[in-house]
Design brief:
The complex is a heterotrimer of chains A (about 500), B (about 100) and C (about 375). Chain A is α/β, with parallel strands linked by helices and about 500 residues long. Helices cover about 35% and strands about 15% of the residues of chain A. In chain A, helix 12 packs parallel to helix 15 and helix 15 packs across helix 17. The chains are: A alpha/beta (about 500), B alpha+beta (about 100), C alpha/beta (about 375).
Chain lengths: ~500, ~100, ~375
């Protein structure tokens, strides 16, 4: 040094700030990783940490640690950390990013995690174009668990579960995840890099930064697959393992950029803003106050009302709607109400039925096995539920002739071609409402205002409301006629 | 080579953080790193800087799997620096420019 | 608030959003699909996230992510889907992440059928996933309870940092009843432990891994202490005509409704019957069972399964009283008459003091 000016040096490359100063979540080795000598994970961690530093996103970053040797990635990264179940990082990342779009979500996965157990999650996250970054470390083996075959294990490569080497016939070919994902429409960037030599390392450093940067710019899904050495399980010296990446692995997994839509993608326009909290009930259609009641029955008039109805027919005959209007009207009139659609083994068989109860006291069971009124839109319904109608109850049957085998002592029967009645007032499909009209006239408990309100609640189209009102009136008239005839 | 001209770069290797994998030795273009003879506290023979030839390229840093085992410094070019520039002085690093 | 006629499945979603839920991830399955559909329609309008996941496995892990980020979140499924979610539920319990899962049960095992059964009790209440954990399980028996217990579920999930399952059957999910909601919407809050991508939350970690044996044991003990608090403070049950009842019927969900009707009719006969309906299945309201064991002569458990909750009743009573069981499976519902027949049989067997006059009509109506 004699005679020379003291040279001064500045730090050019040093431990990235995105790493903790010391690794306090670990019990020992506060400054070293837990990885084996020469392991690629440490190198990839450094590339990622450096990218986080350079992009200035440390505060916003959430790293998802996988299952595998890098399960403890959260020991090292001084960012928000979430540890995920095996293979599920892309789903976990989706859940985070969708709710926290300002965060920078980085999934870090190995080959077992991403290409085997998590193959569905990565495929769909990529296909949705989740705005996340995935680092896929491929070392062609299950290392943490001691060297079992991975989907990316090379043909001929020995593992503890392919002791004679992998064969295409038995285990299939090595899975090319990057190429596979590159067939999808959504990803912004998919590339494979390696850690096989200096040139590859420099390229990998750039690719990883790019994959994070794409997310920062809001462009969408980016994935970098890194061919990475595992000297321990490969049973090689670290430098030999590094060369094996370049000389052997790369032959099966060629490096390259498979998708790059960085220049054509646009960040999404402004995100959906949340409404004011006070607006939420209204948005949900939750009605304020009780002004909506159209026609509450004075309690004195209801006595102890307990109406049990079963409505049955085929799909498309308006069975469920009939019941719904009845229940809605009952509720509007201040009664307790329940409506239970056919729910049982027959749910998909084309038949349809529902149970409706209206009562002045709280309803215990919503199931109606012994109805006061059975509305049977067809014969099978009669067959199924006719015998259950309570003594003194009613069967309303859609058919001019009531099948004699279902006639029961003590049960009122009104059989009529209600479809024809509906046809006469404009549309055969209103048969259900004609029958409801009959039912309402029998029950005689609900104020007309409640029925009108219920109809408007359940039937949205004005032309149907008009038709249905006439159908209900027709039904009421039919019952009166029937009673008069009976009385005569 | 001008004996008085300092190296463009300088290395600091944390001997106790190094696991002796040798990737930096392999990576270093001017071959300025070697594996030492002494065992560190983990029982590894750590890499050491030979003391000369570092260009400050940083390739060893990126090739090293440990977060901070290697720190790479670069010579400050005083001709291009304003006088007030506050570059970070190197602590604990042995300048190796004038061997 | 005005009452509205609504399906149980829809009431869950509206109540969830009122409770501050802002993320729903799910996979369709009968008979829970209406929940997913209602969420698809309501979530975006209220500033929340809805996404149909590629599987139940993905859905529960999306919840894991959303919950990690401090968002109140939920999913809904049925038996086969809940089986697939067990992995994620175990992880969430381990990582102490709150979430609400609605299980609208169907028939099993395997593909079973889509009719209502209560055969998910074991997998939900006993923890179908691996490890030492519990989920809190709430069992609504009406549409109003679908709304009310959903609100409670979010509260308990946050309070205990634990998954909460709303265990309802297809009947309660599909049926419509008047329901009244709170007029107050809970504003989403960010818990201090969340990992939200902010400077303040940078130091936070969500994880269920404790590598050291002592470390994991300490974690398990901590969870255990939490479960003891839950058991002490949160057990709920409805007793209905249970005071002084000699025969106590026990059932949850739709069965609870059927048992109310049976109880009413049996009491009209002069039989001293009551109902004890667990509302929380975990924590099981064991203390209530012990209380009523001092009065009741026999407990009769009715389930739409081959006998799952009945185990907990037996444990709660610990032999203090006989426990009878009536179970139907395959989607069949224990009928009113079936249960009434059981009640009559038990009355003959356990309540002979009533003979002969009071009970004479019972013998006549037969069993």
């Amino acid at each position: 040094m004699s005679g020379a000016v003291d040279p001064d040096y500045t730090v050019a490359h040093s431990r990235p700030k995105a790493f903790y100063e010391s690794f306090e979540r670990k019990e020992e080795l506060q400054h070293q990783t837990h990885y084996c000598p020469g392991c690629g994970h440490g190198i990839v961690h450094k590339m990622l940490a450096r990218a986080i530093d350079e992009l200035g996103v440390q505060d916003r970053t959430i790293l998802i640690s996988p299952v595998g040797c890098s399960v403890f990635a959260y020991y090292y990264f001084d960012v928000g950390n979430v540890q995920a179940a095996h293979g599920r990082a892309p789903a976990v990342g989706t859940g985070i990013k969708r709710s926290r779009p300002g965060s920078i979500v980085i999934g870090y996965q190995g080959d077992g995690d991403l290409s085997a157990i998590g193959s569905a999650e990565i495929l769909h996250a990529a296909n949705r174009g989740e705005n996340i970054t995935v680092i896929f470390v491929n070392n062609a083996i299950y290392s943490m668990t001691g060297g079992q075959m991975a989907p990316t294990t090379l043909l001929g490569q020995k593992s503890t579960t392919t002791p004679d080497g992998r064969t295409a016939e038995h285990e299939g070919h090595p899975l090319h995840m990057s190429e596979l994902l590159a067939t999808l429409g959504a990803p912004v960037y998919i590339g494979r890099v390696g850690l096989g030599d200096n040139r590859q390392i420099a390229q990998a450093t750039r690719a990883i930064k790019r994959a994070v940067e794409n997310q920062v710019r809001g462009l969408g899904f980016s994935l970098v697959e890194v061919l990475s050495p595992c000297p321990t399980i490969w049973k090689m010296q670290p430098v030999d393992a590094q060369h094996w990446v370049r000389d052997v692995m790369e032959k099966t997994f060629p490096l390259g950029v498979f998708v790059d839509r960085t220049n054509e993608m646009q960040p999404p326009a402004g995100t959906n803003t949340a409404p004011a909290i006070g607006e939420i009930p209204r948005i949900l259609g939750i009605c304020a106050g009780d002004a909506g009641l159209a026609g509450e029955i004075p309690t004195s008039q209801t006595g102890e009302l307990d109406l049990r109805v079963r409505v049955s027919g085929f799909g498309g005959q308006g069975v469920l709607l009939l019941g719904e209007v009845l229940a809605e009207a009952g509720m509007d009139a201040g009664l307790e109400a329940s409506w239970l659609p056919s729910y049982g083994p027959e749910i998909r068989s084309g038949t349809s039925n529902c149970h409706v109860r209206l009562a002045s006291s709280p309803i215990d069971s919503p199931l109606v096995m012994n109805p006061d009124v059975l509305v049977a839109m067809n014969e099978p319904s009669l067959k199924k539920f006719g015998a259950g109608v309570r003594s003194g109850g009613w069967i309303l049957y859609n058919g001019a002739m009531f099948p004699p085998e279902y006639v029961r002592e003590g049960v009122h029967i009104l059989a009529r071609d209600f479809t024809r009645e509906a046809d006469a007032i404009g549309d055969p499909r209103a048969a259900n409402m004609v029958m409801l009209g009959v039912l309402l006239e029998i029950a005689a408990a609900l104020p007309q205002a409640s029925i009108d309100a219920a109809l408007r609640q359940c039937v949205k189209q004005p032309k149907w409301i008009d038709l249905d009102e006439r159908a209900l009136a027709r039904g009421r008239a039919l019952l009166r006629e029937f009673m008069e005839r009976g009385a005569a | 080579m001008d004996k008085l001209k300092p190296d463009r770069g300088l290395l600091k290797i944390d001997e106790n953080e190094c696991k002796g994998c040798g990737l930096c030795v392999e990576a270093c273009p001017p071959r300025a790193i070697r594996i030492g003879d002494r065992l560190n506290h983990c029982g590894y023979r750590a890499a050491i800087y030979t003391g000369a030839g570092c260009t400050g390229c940083g390739i060893c840093f990126m090739a090293c799997p440990e977060p901070g085992a290697i720190t790479v410094f670069r010579l400050v070019d005083r001709r291009t620096l304003p006088v007030s520039d506050s570059h970070v002085p190197v602590e604990g690093a042995v300048p190796c420019a004038s061997n | 608030m005005r009452k509205q006629l609504m399906k149980g499945n829809e009431a869950i979603v509206k109540s969830a959003i009122l409770s501050g839920c802002r993320a729903f991830y799910g996979y369709p399955i009968t008979p829970a699909s209406e929940i997913t559909e209602a969420a698809a329609s309501c979530m975006p309008k209220t500033g929340g996230v809805f996404l149909q996941a590629e599987s139940e496995v993905a859905a529960i892990n999306m919840l894991y992510g959303a919950s990690s980020a401090g968002v109140r979140c939920m999913t809904a499924s049925s038996g086969p889907g809940i089986s697939l979610m067990q992995e994620g539920i175990s992880y969430m319990a381990g990582a102490e992440l709150p979430c609400v899962i609605a299980d609208i049960t169907r028939g099993g095992p395997g593909l079973g059928n889509i009719a209502a059964e209560q055969s998910d009790y074991h997998q939900v209440v006993k923890g179908g996933g691996h490890g030492n954990y519990h989920t809190i399980v709430l069992a609504p028996h009406s549409v109003q309870e679908m709304a009310d217990l959903t609100a409670l579920a979010f509260e308990l999930a946050d309070k205990y940092r634990n998954p909460v399952v709303l265990l309802a059957d297809g009947f309660i999910g599909q049926m419509m009843e008047p329901v009244e909601f709170s007029d107050h919407a809970v504003a989403p809050r960010l818990p201090a432990w969340a990992v939200a991508g902010t400077p303040e939350s940078r130091g936070n970690l969500i994880s269920s891994i404790y590598l050291g044996c002592d470390e994991l044991e300490a974690h398990v003990r901590k969870l255990e202490a939490k479960y003891r608090r839950v058991e002490h403070d949160e057990a709920r049950a409805e007793d209905w005509n249970a005071d002084g009842a000699e025969i106590l019927l026990v059932g949850y969900g739709i069965v609870g409704r059927i048992l109310k009707a049976v109880t009413a009719e049996a009491r009209a006969f002069g039989l001293n019957v009551g109902l004890l309906r667990p509302i929380t299945l975990y924590p099981f309201p064991a203390a209530r069972f012990r209380k009523f064991a001092t009065q009741a002569r026999v407990f009769a458990v009715v389930e739409m399964s081959n006998g799952q909750m009945v185990d907990d009743v037996r444990l709660a009573l610990n032999g203090a009283r006989p426990v009878e069981f009536l179970g139907r499976a395959g989607g069949n519902v224990p009928t009113h008459n079936e249960v009434l027949a059981l009640v009559k049989k038990l009355a003959r067997q356990y309540c002979p003091a009533h003979e002969p006059e009071e009970m004479a009509h019972v013998w006549r109506s037969g069993s």
